[in-house]
Specification:
Blueprint: H1 23-38, H2 47-54, H3 58-70, E1 74-77, E2 81-84, E3 89-92, H4 98-103, E4 109-120, H5 123-128, E5 136-146, E6 149-159, H6 166-169, H7 176-183, E7 188-199, H8 202-208, E8 215-225, E9 230-239, E10 243-246
Parallel strand pairs: 3-10
Antiparallel strand pairs: 1-2, 4-5, 5-6, 6-9, 7-8, 8-9
Organism: Amycolatopsis suaedae
GO molecular function, one term: DNA-binding transcription factor activity
Pfam families: GntR (PF00392), UTRA (PF07702)
């Protein structure tokens, strides 16, 4: 087995079987090695310096750097430069809250409230929660923070009839999961989750503070209690460059 086919990175290191590699990709591979040498938080050399280092045009360097920014390996700071990004945060696909998931990684969770209101259920919300159109739901929308950095946007719908005091007892700066289980006595029996990639709407991109062209991870979840009745529908949008999901099988 030759070195280029050794297991340890992307399959065959991303090299096509015909062996011809786009120039920008060769630069990208070289940048990944450089990122490993520089370490988290280090500034990347300028496009001119990288062009000289890899003997390519600045446009080629820019394409390679742009891909690494989209993948979360590099981060651009307006008016400052490009820096080596830290590792992605990992959110478990399990019945644990956003708060628990981050605290387990030594990261400080936080939230900024956008809206907390009663609405009439309609469309997919009504269908997922088995409500008649017009029945009331409590809607809570919050920007999700990790060590003060905006990383996502969460929109939660709960069956209002099951939680008549929720708006009175819930602190939007805290964990909704903790409020439901500890204050309102909810026992989660299960949930159905679906994850897909999307682009943020202009409103979502503004709230999260990200480029609308940046791929996002969208998580849909419907949760139910021991009686099998759904009570919660969650739509969570996360920055694909800062968050990854993980689950354990077995």
């Amino acid at each position: 087995m030759t070195d280029e086919h050794a297991a340890g990175g992307p399959v065959r290191n991303g090299v096509p079987e015909h062996g011809r590699v786009p120039r920008y990709y060769a630069v990208k591979v070289g940048l990944l090695e450089l990122i490993g040498e520089l370490g988290e938080g280090a500034a990347l050399p300028t496009e001119r310096e990288l062009g000289e280092r890899f003997a390519v045009s600045r446009a080629t360097v820019r394409q390679a750097v742009s891909e690494l920014v989209l993948e979360g390996r590099l981060i651009r700071r307006q008016g400052s430069g490009t820096y080596v990004a830290g590792p992605k945060l990992v959110q478990p696909l399990a019945l644990v809250s956003y708060t628990e998931g981050l605290r387990d990684q030594g990261v400080r969770p936080g939230r900024t409230l956008i809206s907390m209101e009663r609405l009439a259920a309609a469309g997919e919300v009504a269908a997922d929660l088995r409500l008649e159109p017009g029945e009331q739901v409590v809607h809570i929308e919050r920007v999700l923070l990790a060590d003060g950095e905006r990383v996502g946007l969460e929109s939660t719908y709960l069956v209002a009839a099951r939680f008549p005091t929720l708006l009175d007892v819930f602190d939007p700066a805290e964990s909704l999961y903790a409020c439901l289980t500890e204050r309102l006595g909810v026992e989660f029996a299960g949930a159905r989750e679906r994850v897909e990639t999307v682009l943020a709407t202009p409103r979502e991109a503004l709230l999260i503070g990200t480029n609308p062209a940046l791929p996002m991870l969208l998580l849909h979840r419907v949760s139910w209690t021991l009686d099998g009745a759904p009570f919660e529908r969650v739509r969570s949008l996360f920055r694909g460059d800062r968050l990854a999901f993980e689950t354990q099988l077995g």
